[in-house]
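Worked example

This section walks through a single chain of length 193. The input is the sequence exactly as stored; nothing has been trimmed or padded.
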Amino acid sequence: MNFYKFARGLLRGIFKILYRIEIEGIENIPDKGRVILCANHISNLDPIIVGIISPRAICFMAKKELFKNKFIAKILYLLKAFPVDRQGSDISAIRKSLEVLKNEEVLGIFPEGTRISNVDINSAKPGISMIGIKSKSPIIPIYIDSNYKLFNKVKVKIGNIIYLDSYYDKKLRTEDYKNISVEILESIYSLKK
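Given that input, the structure is written out below as tokens.
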């Protein structure tokens, strides 16, 4: 058993005790093929929640600050995460994302780029749509609803696949990518009920 499966199984057991996790739409995550999972970001626990509910291993893009400690960095790499510099356009993180998708794996991204307490649809980063379009990958919106208080409910709603094929092979500007990312973020928040 690899480290990812071991960690996911362990965390799944712990989180089952600590929280009541409700999942809706799990069938929307395909069994195989490249796909990008995009969720809202309210807590440091969000990647764990998305990771344990997904039937497939996820390669998460994570802020580079988490990789400063060598021990934590080693664990993150074992969990298939890779660093991104959120201050600008990080070419190496984009390359790594495209490589993950080329290998028909699952990429995990939080389109807002950081934890958000107040929803601002315009905070969506252009990178998510750019990666989706350049890699010709479908995107699955995920909405997490929780206050993460112990023994409370964590509701996870997985939306329908978003296809960006109408944008493939088109010359797009940063502003276009930004607008498409805003639409993706809107689709995430539209899952809130």
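What to look for: The CA atoms of residues 133 and 174 lie 13 Å apart.
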